[in-house]
Specification:
The complex is a heterotrimer of chains A (421), B (190) and C (342). Chain A is α/β, with parallel strands linked by helices. Chain A is built from 15 helices and 16 strands. A seven-stranded mixed beta sheet of chain A has the order 3-2-4-5-7-6-13, with helices on both faces. In chain A, strand 6, helix 7 and strand 7 (160-165) form a beta-alpha-beta unit. Residues 414-421 of chain A have low confidence and may be disordered. By secondary structure, chain B is an alpha/beta fold. Chain B is 41% helix and 19% strand. Chain B has helices spanning 14-27, 77-80, 107-112, 123-130, 137-148, 153-163, 167-189; strands at 2-9, 31-36, 46-54, 69-72, 92-96, 118-121. Chain B has a six-stranded mixed beta sheet with strand order 2-3-1-4-5-6, covered by helices on one side. The longest helix of chain B is centred in the last third of the chain and has 23 residues, at 167-189. Chain C is 32% helix and 13% strand. In chain C, strand 5, helix 7 and strand 6 form a beta-alpha-beta unit. Classes of the chains: A alpha/beta (421), B alpha/beta (190), C alpha/beta (342). At the A-C interface, strand 3, helix 3, helix 5 and strand 9 of A face strand 1, strand 2, helix 3 and helix 5 of C.
Chain lengths: 421, 190, 342
């Protein structure tokens, strides 16, 4: 059924259709509306057979989900940014134990400096934790990927995080098609655990594993993610048959067929990039787009096949590893390792801390990649003036003060308070 | 694609205005996207929200830099920020005020727009009259419908009714209707 | 005596000695015998684990789990915090647990148990109960936030803390449950103020009482019947419950492995470990001290307090500890005059 609703509510409706049994919630901008929506549905009775628990921290939230999942219930939670870090120990614990928890990550920058707006630093911080990581381009994508996430998680016995850009998607009101309960039930059967705490068949879960077997446990986790490389496209195909929408599996491409330059990106930025590509194509540029849907497992082979033979690859991402560069660009380099005649890879870092990414800026950087390639990461729309002033100040004065405050002052702005959410 | 940018201050329903507008467009089977400017929000601070309307899927997510229409809920903003930045030469300007464009020193802006594209509406007064609270967004949406024809008044009314069932909704619809009719009269006069 | 509701142990128990403290007095009527005395007890924590000789925690956990299994007819799931108990009961690839058991992290046992309880309700199996257990480190320190959250929500979880007064598994470091003056690896018996500092203390049982939860109790491995009665009572209640069991650690305390139960008894009898119950925020009972002893009698057999007996300052500290014990005795009325035997 078509609806015009806020992204977070659309996600909440999708979760509700998946018949979650235990939902634990701790508020953090920008995912709060999702769990509030679910809480309301439980209270009104719209979502039945579901326990909604208000916990006292994100660490508790994922811990409750761990207990519930290990005891055989379909468990869900949501977080972002600082909250994800606060539950970091539990994130690794859930994947190490092989529990099929689904979690929405309302992508938000990690502080300091504290920032409530969108970027992918939170997802990146947990990319090695053994969770599947799927990125939604639109709120329709968010709905569709969450439904597939539960199926994937339970099939693989592995937790899945679905990344939805904070504010840009979570707080946007747009048209979505909410599937029917019957269709979701047909796609997502009840949870059949691989391991479960049951008095009738007592087992111990969570033993210590020493040097003699730890490597093998980790290898099997990695192996399961390679199975996911096959399962994700399979389930996406099944989803398309039943629901009529193609989420693309591991990745999607747009006007890529003959493109000399391919842009690679994740999340909502892909929408703006598509419009930019249409405009550049009209101007005669040979350019296309690869949208990564599954970041973990990383679609190395699929990406290599698409990127091979191109002249340029521009990776544009909303995150970067301090001291190293863009993580997505780094992973793309991996896909092209040992590829003969590999394309030139250009790394762009954009949108950090919620900075808008405009078509105008994209036009400029795509053209520049072809004409004036650079080394390392290029920071889109970097304000070099205030950087220069701060560097000069720091060189002159030992007690130069907090960097963030200095920069803000230079921007002639009063200190901004975070949104009251 | 038609892009609307709405300016106001926190507490004036700027974000709701964009959402209601998007719902009105949806009810007419159009694609619409509404989102706030994600700046710091507290009562009284300048707030911007955006709404895009199109006949096909909207993929663009950047802020609206070249609006086809500007709705200004609070005239004090003209002194604070460049409200009209990027307004297309074929664009529309709808301002909540009981004064004239001349009084607001906006005639140079109006002059650049096609005749009949710039309209003032005393939306706050209409809101106080019908709703009893100085929230001008519904009235402005009614005026927007008349001014641009991008959505119909009855779609706006339906969107309001869905979001605010009962007396509150009806009062908002009454304000929207009166503003709509006033704007329609001004438009035909231009 | 057979308990028809207990889950059959996968290892049959055999008692090699009769008339020991553990097995119990065969002349005592069935109904008054401890669960431990029964050959049909679930033996939820079976033999083969790697605990130190004389480990009080192994004893406490076995006592508590067997009676909880009896009380719930075997419908029980245990969540264990990281710590000694978790480590010595599950040396890969073995486990000594004969009940469903989950170890997640150090600080989240209470929250994980909340999740287990919620899952059982939602699956339509509310008769399956959840127990969380952890040492003092995982309870009073790193697990405190989750514990308080569970209390505040009144989740249907019994949390059992086995308090051996330190992070023993990692090499005897100080926790917020370590008594003042005690020597640990991070509070060495050196310098002008040897051993742990005299802080303000942290009584999690008192904090649990302040939370107003349905049932709080302290217990000790020196009093098996009392411990069993309390666990049974707790399992008959729904909502948040907390039992704090004092469990001597020969390794960490520097005591003889055969002294575990004796030390546990001395801790009670000198007043340093008050044994009481509380419901909904009010103390409802306390176990009277039968044979009061000065704190020094309790401290002497423990090398972690040895430095107190070597100096003037040490003697002053013993007096300070005595004052703490006396305060406990007054607060919990541990020395009420006994009824005259008729």
């Amino acid at each position: 059924m078509l609806k015009q609703i806020e992204g977070s509510h659309a996600t909440a409706e999708a979760i509700a259709l998946c018949r979650p049994e235990v939902i634990c919630a701790y508020p953090i901008t920008p995912q709060t509306h999702i769990v509030e929506g679910l809480g309301e549905m439980v209270k009104t009775g719209e979502l039945t057979n579901c326990e909604f628990i208000n916990v006292e921290s994100e660490f508790a939230a994922l811990s409750v989900a761990i207990g519930a999942s290990a005891a055989g219930a379909r468990a869900y939670t949501a977080t972002a940014s600082q909250g994800l870090l606060f539950m970091a120990e539990a994130v690794y614990n859930a994947s190490g134990l092989g529990l099929p928890i689904v979690m929405t990550l309302g992508n938000r920058a990690i502080g300091a400096p504290i920032n409530i707006w969108n970027d992918h630093s939170d997802a990146m911080s947990m990319r090695d934790a053994g969770w599947l990581q799927l990125f939604a381009e639109s709120n329709q994508d968010s709905i569709d990927l969450h439904i597939q996430a539960f199926r994937l998680a339970e099939e693989l016995s592995m937790p899945v995080m679905v990344c939805v850009d904070g504010f840009i998607l979570t707080h946007a009101v747009e048209r979505v098609d909410i599937p029917t309960q019957a269709d979701v039930d047909a796609f997502l059967p009840p949870y059949e655990p691989v391991q479960v705490l049951d008095p009738a068949n007592p087992i111990s879960i969570g033993a210590m594993v020493g040097p003699d077997a730890f490597t093998e446990v980790r290898f099997l986790q990695h192996y399961k993610q390679t199975l996911a490389l096959r399962l994700i496209p399979e389930f996406a195909a099944e989803f398309k048959t039943r629901f009529g929408r193609d989420t693309g599996g591991l990745l999607r491409s747009y006007r890529a067929e003959d493109a000399e330059m391919l842009v690679v990106a994740m999340g909502s930025i892909n929408g703006t990039i598509k419009d930019t590509i249409d405009e550049m194509r009209a101007d005669g540029f040979s350019i296309g787009l690869v949208t990564i849907v599954s970041f973990r497992p990383f679609p190395t082979e699929a990406l290599r096949r698409l990127l091979a033979g191109r002249k340029h690859v521009v990776v544009i991402e909303k995150s970067f590893a301090v001291g190293m560069g863009g993580q997505l660009a780094n992973n793309v380099d991996l896909a092209l390792r040992n590829t003969p005649a590999a394309p030139q890879v250009h790394s762009v870092v954009a949108g950090l801390g919620g900075r808008s990414i405009t078509r105008a800026s994209l036009h400029r950087v795509f053209r520049r990649a072809m004409a004036q390639p650079w080394e390392g990461a290029h920071f889109l729309d970097l304000n070099e003036e205030i950087i220069g002033k701060e560097l000069h100040h720091v060189r002159k004065v030992r007690r130069s003060g907090p960097t963030a405050e200095n920069l803000l002052r230079r921007l002639d702005q009063a200190a901004n308070l975070p949104a009251a959410e | 694609m038609f892009q609307i940018r709405i300016h106001g201050r926190g507490g004036q329903g700027v974000v709701t205005a964009a959402e209601l507008l998007s719902v009105a467009a949806f009810l007419e089977d159009k694609h619409a996207q509404a989102f706030p400017s994600f700046g710091s929000e507290h009562m009284g601070a300048p707030v911007v929200s955006f709404c895009r309307i199109d006949g096909k899927e909207i993929r663009l997510r950047e802020p609206i830099i070249e609006p086809d229409a500007l709705i200004v809920q609070d005239v004090t903003l003209f002194k604070a920020i460049d409200v009209c930045q990027g307004l297309k030469s074929t664009g529309y300007l709808l301002v909540n005020t009981n004064r004239s464009f001349a009084d607001l020193h906006l005639e140079p802006v109006v002059a650049k727009l096609p005749a009949g594209h710039a309209v003032t509406v005393p939306a706050t007064e209409l809101a106080l009259k019908h709703i009893g609270r100085p929230v001008p967004n519904a009235a402005l949406l009614g005026a927007f419908a008349a001014l641009t024809g991008m959505v119909r008044l009855d779609s706006v009314a339906k969107a309001i009714r869905e979001a605010f069932p009962g007396k509150m909704g009806e009062a908002n619809i009454a304000a929207a209707t009166e503003a709509h009719d006033a704007a329609a009269r001004v438009k035909t006069a231009a | 005596m057979t308990d028809t509701t207990a889950t059959a142990a996968t290892q049959k128990l055999r008692f090699y000695q009769k008339g020991t403290f553990t097995v119990g007095n065969r002349l005592v009527p069935d109904t008054e015998r401890s669960v431990q005395a029964s050959i049909d007890r679930s033996n939820a924590l079976t033999c083969g684990h790697r605990a130190c000789q004389g480990c009080g925690e192994a004893l406490g956990a076995r006592y508590a789990m067997d009676v909880a299994m009896r009380a719930t007819g075997g419908n029980l799931i245990a969540v264990n915090a990281t710590g000694c108990l978790e480590v010595f009961t599950t040396p890969y690839p073995e486990t000594s647990w004969q009940m469903p058991w989950l170890h997640s992290l150090f600080g989240n046992a209470a929250a994980v148990a909340t999740g287990v309880a919620a899952a059982m309700r939602v699956k339509g199996r509310p008769e399956v109960r959840a127990i969380a257990q952890g040492g003092d480190g995982g309870t009073t320190d790193i697990g405190f936030g989750c514990l308080s959250g569970m209390f505040e929500r009144n989740d249907d979880v019994l949390y059992i803390c086995y308090d051996n007064e330190g992070y023993m598994n990692t090499g005897v470091q100080r926790s917020s449950a370590t008594p003042p003056t005690a020597r640990t690896a991070t509070t060495p018996a050196m310098g002008p103020e040897p051993g742990n500092v005299f802080g303000t203390g942290k009584s999690v049982p008192k904090i649990a009482v302040a939370h107003g939860i349905p049932y709080v109790a302290t217990a000790t491995v020196a009093d098996l019947h009392d411990l069993e009665r309390k666990v049974t009572k707790a399992m008959g209640i729904h909502g948040a419950r907390y039992i704090h069991i004092h469990v001597p650690c020969p390794l960490g305390w520097g005591s003889a492995s055969y002294d575990t139960i004796r030390l546990a008894r001395l801790a009670v009898e000198c007043g340093l470990f008050p044994v009481f119950e509380a419901e909904h925020g009010a103390v409802t009972s306390s176990r009277k001290i039968r044979r009061p002893v000065p704190v020094s009698e309790y401290l002497k057999p423990q090398r972690r307090f040895a430095h107190l007996f070597k100096s003037e300052a040490g003697a002053r500290n013993i007096a300070h500890l005595q004052a703490i014990a006396d305060r406990n005795i007054a607060e919990y009325k541990l020395l009420e005059p006994m009824e005259e035997e008729g």
